[in-house]
């Protein structure tokens, strides 16, 4: 198949170009483009969601947007033509004048900084300023355009935090002073009470009535409990103030030392402790020893009367967190109701009477404070008669694997 065709003699194609515009028309079009550009910039400048102004090389305000007028409480006509430092407290004006000079001359970098401004009603604001140099066609600096953020609330919050930190530091210093007093002034009278009680018992035991001997025994027991309580409070107060720097610690070594320290007590109640493979963590070796000694001693204390205690200790990885690991300490003792979970980690909170189980009610509070000092976490799960499971989460330096009982 083929197609044939031709143009007739009177058919022609003509392209007619617009004649070159006259110089006057070209200038007019250029002026229109400049007006459009100026209008676009003016709209953008006025509608910007942050305060903004332009000043010349002498600090005179050339342009100011609606956001800055609302921020400072002035009308545009009250700001245009004035020096920008006129809107600052007197102590800021010299610094502002020098800053403008250095920036225009190129001896200072145009980096963000903070300056105080004064609203029309006298309120002082802290403003974060982001400056940009304005230049002409030759590159010469002709002024500065500044974008301004009100950070007054943030600065006040930071000041409040600093004051709170100072208050906390003073409180900690007072706590350390209390610890010093407790370790010396309070314990010395207790030592004397116990010493004179022992002397009275050895020299006058035959002369005391049964009631007198009972009173003497109660006095010595009370003094011993008070001394233990003071020592536990000292340990609690020293967790933060006297802790050692955090370094890699092999928990396997720590656990062997803990079991060695508790060996006699474990033999007395027939305890069996099963320890799995434990990781290297980042911590204070002494405090980690206190932590796990308290947890294991807690398991020994709250065992079922008819059964010798069994304590299991192992490590577990945390899914998606190779930098942390969990240490589990599980016993098969009397357990507790989980509705009391928050109480067991608080100072002086006891779920059982002193006549049933000895202790000051500080051991688990000490555990929590040690774990918090290590930026970790501790929790527990239990049920009455079913034992307890304590889980300690710590920053891991080297995780060595899943549980492996020895």
Oligomer: single chain
Count of DSSP-assigned helices: 11
| Major sheet attributes | 7 strands, mixed
Question: Averaging pLDDT over every residue, what do you get?
Answer: 81
Secondary structure category: alpha+beta
Instruction: Work out the radius of gyration.
Output: 40 Å
CATH superfamily label of the largest domain: Histidine kinase-like ATPase, C-terminal domain
- The SSE string, one letter per element, is HEEHHHEEEHHEHHEEHEEHHEE
CATH topology of the largest domain: Heat Shock Protein 90
Distance between the termini: 94 Å
Q: Give the low-confidence spans.
A: 1-13, 351-357, 399-406
Strand content: 15-25%
How many β-strand stretches?
A: 12
Helix content: 40-55%
State the CATH architecture of the largest domain.
2-Layer Sandwich
Please describe what this structure looks like.
This protein has eleven helices and twelve strands. With 406 residues, it is an alpha+beta fold. The protein is elongated and about 130 Å long. It has three domains: 118 residues, Beta-Lactamase, CATH 3.30.450; 87 residues, Helix Hairpins; 163 residues, Histidine kinase-like ATPase, C-terminal domain (Heat Shock Protein 90, 2-Layer Sandwich). Strand 4 and strand 5 form a beta hairpin. The strands form two sheets. Strands 6, 7, 8, 9, 10, 11 and 12 form a seven-stranded mixed β-sheet that branches.
């Amino acid at each position: 198949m083929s197609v044939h065709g031709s143009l007739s003699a009177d058919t022609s194609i003509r392209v007619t170009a617009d004649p070159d515009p006259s110089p006057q028309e070209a200038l007019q079009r250029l002026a229109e483009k400049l007006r459009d550009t100026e209008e676009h910039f003016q709209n953008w400048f006025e509608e910007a969601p942050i305060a903004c102004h332009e000043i010349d090389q002498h600090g005179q305000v050339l342009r100011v947007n609606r956001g800055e007028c609302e921020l400072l409480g002035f009308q545009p006509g009250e700001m245009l033509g004035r020096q920008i430092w006129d809107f600052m407290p007197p102590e800021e004006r010299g610094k502002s004048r020098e800053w403008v000079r250095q920036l225009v001359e190129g001896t200072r970098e145009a980096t963000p900084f903070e300056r105080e401004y004064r609203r029309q009603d006298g309120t002082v604001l802290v403003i974060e300023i982001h400056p940009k140099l304005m230049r002409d066609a030759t590159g010469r600096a002709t002024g500065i355009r500044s974008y301004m953020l009100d950070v007054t609330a943030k600065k006040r919050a930071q000041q409040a935090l600093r004051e709170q930190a100072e208050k906390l530091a003073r409180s900690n210093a007072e706590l350390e002073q209390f610890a010093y007093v407790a370790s010396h002034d309070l314990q010395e009278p207790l030592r004397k009470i116990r010493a004179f009680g022992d002397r009275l018992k050895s020299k006058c035991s035959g002369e005391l009535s049964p009631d007198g001997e009972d009173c003497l025994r109660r006095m010595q027991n009370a003094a011993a409990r008070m001394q233990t309580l003071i020592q536990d409070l000292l340990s609690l107060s020293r967790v933060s103030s006297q802790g050692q720097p955090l370094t890699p610690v092999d928990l396997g070594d720590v656990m062997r030392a803990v079991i060695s320290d508790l060996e006699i007590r474990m033999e007395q109640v027939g305890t069996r402790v099963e320890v799995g493979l434990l990781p290297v963590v980042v911590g204070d070796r002494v405090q980690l020893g206190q932590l796990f000694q308290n947890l294991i001693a807690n398991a020994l204390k709250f065992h079922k009367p008819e059964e010798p205690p069994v304590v299991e200790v192992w490590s577990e990885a945390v899914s998606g967190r190779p930098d942390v690991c969990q240490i589990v300490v599980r016993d098969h003792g009397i357990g507790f109701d989980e509705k009391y979970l928050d109480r067991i980690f608080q100072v002086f909170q006891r779920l059982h009477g002193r006549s049933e189980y000895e202790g000051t009610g500080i051991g688990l509070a000490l555990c929590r404070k040690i774990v918090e000092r290590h930026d970790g976490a501790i929790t527990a799960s239990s049920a009455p008669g079913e034992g307890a499971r304590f889980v300690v989460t710590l920053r891991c330096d080297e995780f060595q694997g899943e549980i492996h009982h020895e």
